[in-house]
Design goal:
This protein has 5 helices and 4 strands. By secondary structure, the chain is mainly alpha-helical. It has 2 domains: 31 residues, no CATH class; 105 residues, no CATH class. Strand 1 and strand 2 form a beta hairpin. Helix 1 packs antiparallel against helix 2, helix 1 crosses helix 4 and helix 1 runs parallel beside helix 5.
């Protein structure tokens, strides 16, 4: 049993640790099993440098991934928001035209023609948000699945062209042009 605690230290497991040297700073001691092994200043700096380098590399990688995701998410949001708003505006314009026609008949005391009421009912079903943004028209990454040609007018924006070419929007724009006569 050990009696002189100054010459030997007892580890947590109760075993003698004769390699520990109190004159060496704790940061320069490396735990090996149940004992501490002294490191030279050169090795301690090297370990500290490697640890710091690893830490900076990890933090840099995380920052790069975070910034990259934020940039691409923002760009995707900006494009998707503009396209969604343009499509919604076109659908709203078509529905507004039909609703305005029905309301104009009703305000004059004349019932709107049954054909016009039927058109409005069908348009509300096909031009609602769930229908316009259904999976049949859009990929999981937000790209459209329907054909879109290059803009006919040189200055035309792509989002306006994609919105006009949306199958439901195109169908109802053509239907209103052909079926509703003033």
């Amino acid at each position: 049993m050990l009696t002189n605690m100054d010459s030997a230290h007892t580890s947590a497991a109760g075993l003698a640790d004769t390699t520990k040297n109190d004159s060496v700073p704790r940061s320069h001691q490396l735990p090996v099993g149940n004992s501490q092994v002294e490191l030279s200043d050169e090795n301690a700096i090297s370990l500290d440098t490697r640890k710091l380098q690893t830490q900076h590399t990890t933090e840099g990688y995380r920052d790069g991934i975070t910034n990259g995701k934020a940039d691409s998410l923002q760009a995707g949001f900006d494009e998707g928001f503009g396209l969604g708003a343009t499509i919604g505006l076109n659908a709203g314009r078509l529905l507004g035209l039909l609703e305005g026609l029905v309301d104009s008949f009703n305000e004059t005391g004349v019932d709107s023609p049954a054909q016009l009421d039927k058109l409005l009912s069908e348009a509300r079903k096909e031009l609602n948000e769930a229908s316009i943004f259904a999976e049949e028209y859009w990929g999981h990454d937000g790209t459209w699945k329907y054909p879109v040609e290059e803009p006919e007018i040189k200055d035309e924006r792509l989002t306006e062209n994609v919105a006009r070419r949306h199958p439901a929007i195109a169908k109802w724009a053509e239907k209103l042009d052909n079926d509703v006569k003033f």
